[in-house]
Specification:
By secondary structure, the protein is of the alpha/beta class. Helix content is 54%, strand content 10%. It has a seven-stranded mixed sheet, with helices on both faces. The radius of gyration is 24 Å and the shape is globular.
Length: 496
Amino acid sequence: MILEYIIITIYSIALILIFIYALAQLNLLFNYISAQKKEDKSLQFDMKNYKEVPFVTIQLPVYNELYVMERLLENIVTLEYPKEKLEIQVLDDSTDESINSTKKQIDQLQKKGVDIQHIHRKNRLGFKAGALKEGLLIAKGEFIAIFDADFLPKKDWLLQTVPYFKDPQVGVVQTRWSHINRNYSILTKIQAFALDAHFTLEQVGRNCKGHFINFNGTAGIWRKECIIDAGNWEGDTLTEDLDLSYRAQLKKWKFKYLEEVRTPAELPVVISAAKSQQFRWNKGGAENFQKMAKRVLFAKNISIKTKIHGLLHLLNSSMFLMIFLVAVLSIPMLYIKNEYEHLRSYFYMISFFIISSVIFFICYWFMFKKSYGSSFKNFFKYTGTFFTFFSIAMGFSLHNSVAVLQGHLGKKSEFIRTPKFNIKNADDSWKENKYMPKKTSLHQLIEGALTLYFAFGMYSAFIVGDQGGDFGLFPFHLMLFFGFGFVFTKSLFSKT
């Protein structure tokens, strides 16, 4: 009976933590709805007055971006801004032939009068954070705009963001991501779905109430003074953007989030690329919880509510570990319920997961209908999208749980870039991309085994107990079977 009680305890704790996180999301929904009724009265520079227009440095941190560098540079030089008040730094840590092609393109741009520098480091010390920090040493701009290699800001991007720095307390202006290849596949659709929720519900819901948000690593602009005052870029976590964001806000710098300013970008089109991105984000989130949680908890200049939201924000990635535990333990719980009559009451803890799922369903629906409308057709489409997303997200839970555990345990790893493909349309191919991984990992084999495990969970629904089976967890196990099966098969397919 000891094993049974251990399983029940772990299962119950994981469900309660997921429920608490869901309640926080519901609070963010209320914040988001109230924010729509407020008029933005922020101070803004008059960009028509040349004297008010500040000097801006654009930083482009890149590493082995053979397929997208030409597109990136062609796009960046079209940004509308006084040329004499704008410089571009290409912070190039590349180790492949892209160095030469990038240099040639930059040489051509320099001949056309563009103020652009090619800064190539021979080592990746500090990874992206190290590159940004080195570029900052010689940056002429009072404000520092940052774009990853797969981002394509619109021509008026600087004119829409820079004005908000008239308020001297604003340290960061962050814009929303949009997706140039949203409809490429199921994988890109569910990534876009998840990111849309983050860039609406979470960023607006926190920012409008003065809670901590994060610079998203790209498509945003920093006040140089804010970076220096917060302690500059540090490369001791895999999410240097989240780290510096929290240090800046603890220093009382304001973050301005612009939901309506959308910056197009390319989503990973193969699951190996999505996995590398997810691993970095989730491990970095756990690393930042270890680094920043005490500072947030014991800060004297922020409210209790902001502390709660901040801690849950830092624990965001750890929810994957809770979901994984609930998933794996759900089959033993099914047998415990039907074998031990006196333990049956504990099974009703599953209601916490059902309520949490309903909360997530409601929150994401509000975000979806704002973009697509609330017709019955759109609700039907949303329902299918939500459960597909939910299933695949659970399918990622093993991979992301490993990342979270490594982050909490302090295991260091290299900053693995997300391969870029320069793909927009369904007929574009990624198969010749030289950055694709070739080996099958142990994680993938375990994901295959878990697919079979949850198939056994569905089978178990028919055979447990003496009342003709127990189908209460059947839909859950079906979603897990689909989610892990999708991740496993796509992982194998991405090798071909």
